[in-house]
Write a structure and sequence with these properties.
With 358 residues, this protein is of the alpha+beta class. It has nine helices and 13 strands.
C-alpha cells in the first residue's frame, strides 16, 4: 500500500506540465485580446518592412567612419594669420634674407608696427612669403609677423597667432572625451593692437568623432556646469562671415557666458563653439544630431571647435572675447576645412559609386 507522500506525488502534475499549462492559459488570454494581437502584428510588419526598405534604399543605420585629410595636431601654425595693412610694392626689393633693411623698417613703423632693428627676415619655404623673426618681447612672446610678396601689387603684412602651449590630454581623460583625435592649443594674438586686452590669449580646442556608436555630441553647457561648478548667465548666437571660403559664406556660432561665483575672477567666462558635421556647419547639438541622422548618408563624422579667452587671473569682457573669437574663427575655420576635415562631396561621390556597382 502506497504511503500518503507517494499518493500525493502521483496526483500532483509535474513541474513541466504545470509550466505548459500556464503558457496555454497565457496564450488563450493573449489570443482573446484582439487589440493586443493586432498591435504585435503591426509592430512585426513595420520592423520587417523597415529592414526591407533599408536594404532597398541602402540606408545605413550604423554610420561608417571617414578619415581626416590630415590629423588635427598637424595644423600649420603659419596659416593662422590676419592681414594688417599693405606696403608700397617698391619695397619688394628690400626683401632679402638677413637683417631687416632700414627702408622696410621705417615703412613698417609708419604703419604702426614697431619692430626692433635686430629683426631678421627669413624665407618661410612658401613662395613669396617672408617671416619677420623678431626678438622676444619683455613678456616672453615671440612676435609672429609675415610679409606676403606674391603678385605684382602691394605687399601685405600679416600678423599671426603665436603658439604658447600645445596641451597634451592624459589617457584617462581621453577615455571620457571619447576620441584621440584632438587639438588643444593656447595661442597669443599678435593681430590685436591692444596690449592690455586679455582676449589676446585664447584657447583653441578641436575634437573629431567618427565611426562610434555614440553619436551624441558633447557640448560646453554640460561640461562646464557638470564638472566645474559654473552656471550660465547668458547664451546667444553670432554670425561670422568666412570670405576665405566664398563671398557669401557665413556661419552661426553659439556663445555662452558662464559665471563661477565661488571664485574671485575679473569677469565672466566666455565660450564660443560650433560643429562641422558631414560637410556642413552646425551651431548646436540639435542641428548636429539631425545632420548625423540623415538616412541617406552611409558615413558620418562631426568635429567641434571651441574657443575660450583670457587667463586664470584675468578674463576679457564679453565684447572683447566675442570680437577676438569672430576674428579667429575667420582664420582657423577655412584652414580646418581645406586641410583637415573630410571632403564631404568626395565621400558622397564614393558612396554613389559604391551603390551603382552593387
Amino acid at each position: 500500500m502506497a504511503s500518503d507522500t507517494e499518493s500525493s506525488a502521483v496526483c500532483r502534475p509535474s513541474a513541466r506540465e504545470a509550466w505548459r499549462e500556464g503558457w496555454r492559459l497565457t496564450a488563450r488570454r493573449i489570443a482573446s485580446n484582439r487589440g493586443f494581437v493586432l498591435c504585435v502584428l503591426l509592430l512585426v510588419a513595420m520592423t520587417v518592412g523597415f529592414q526591407v526598405l533599408a536594404v532597398a534604399r541602402d540606408i545605413q543605420f550604423r554610420k561608417l567612419a571617414v578619415d581626416l585629410k590630415k590629423p588635427l595636431h598637424l595644423l600649420e601654425q603659419s596659416k593662422l594669420t590676419q592681414p594688417l595693412f599693405e606696403l608700397d610694392p617698391a619695397l619688394r626689393r628690400r626683401l632679402y634674407t638677413g637683417r631687416i633693411s632700414l627702408g622696410l623698417l621705417d615703412a613698417l613703423r609708419a604703419k604702426g608696427l614697431e619692430l626692433s632693428p635686430e629683426t631678421d627676415i627669413v624665407e618661410t619655404g612658401v613662395e613669396g612669403l617672408w617671416s619677420l623673426a623678431e626678438p622676444t618681447d619683455p613678456d616672453g612672446h615671440q612676435p609672429v609677423h609675415l610679409i606676403d610678396s606674391t603678385g605684382d601689387g602691394p605687399l601685405t603684412v600679416l600678423a599671426g597667432y603665436e603658439l604658447v602651449n600645445a596641451v597634451e590630454i592624459k589617457p584617462e581623460v581621453l577615455d571620457s572625451l571619447g576620441t584621440d583625435q584632438y587639438l588643444q592649443w593656447i595661442l597669443y594674438d599678435h593681430s590685436n593692437p591692444d596690449p592690455n586686452d586679455p582676449a589676446k590669449y585664447l584657447s583653441l580646442f578641436v575634437t573629431y568623432y567618427t565611426g562610434a556608436r555614440d553619436q551624441i555630441p558633447h557640448v560646453p553647457e554640460e561640461c562646464y556646469i557638470g564638472g566645474g561648478g559654473y552656471h550660465i548667465i547668458d547664451e546667444w548666437f553670432v554670425d561670422v562671415p568666412l570670405p576665405a571660403l566664398g563671398p557669401e559664406e557665413t556661419v552661426r556660432v553659439k556663445v555662452l557666458e558662464f559665471d563661477r561665483a565661488r571664485y574671485i575672477t575679473h569677469g565672466s567666462r566666455i565660450v564660443m563653439y560650433l560643429f562641422h558635421t558631414n560637410g556642413r556647419f552646425c551651431p548646436d547639438r540639435m542641428c548636429t544630431r539631425m545632420a548625423l541622422g540623415n538616412p541617406s548618408d552611409r558615413h558620418a563624422y562631426f568635429s567641434k571647435v571651441e574657443l575660450t579667452f583670457g587667463t586664470s587671473r584675468l578674463l576679457p569682457t564679453r565684447e572683447q572675447a566675442v570680437a577676438a573669437g569672430k576674428r579667429f574663427m575667420q582664420v582657423v575655420l577655412p584652414v580646418l576645412v581645406r586641410d583637415h576635415w573630410p571632403d564631404w562631396d568626395a565621400v558622397k561621390r564614393a558612396e554613389r559609386s559604391s551603390v551603382a556597382t552593387h
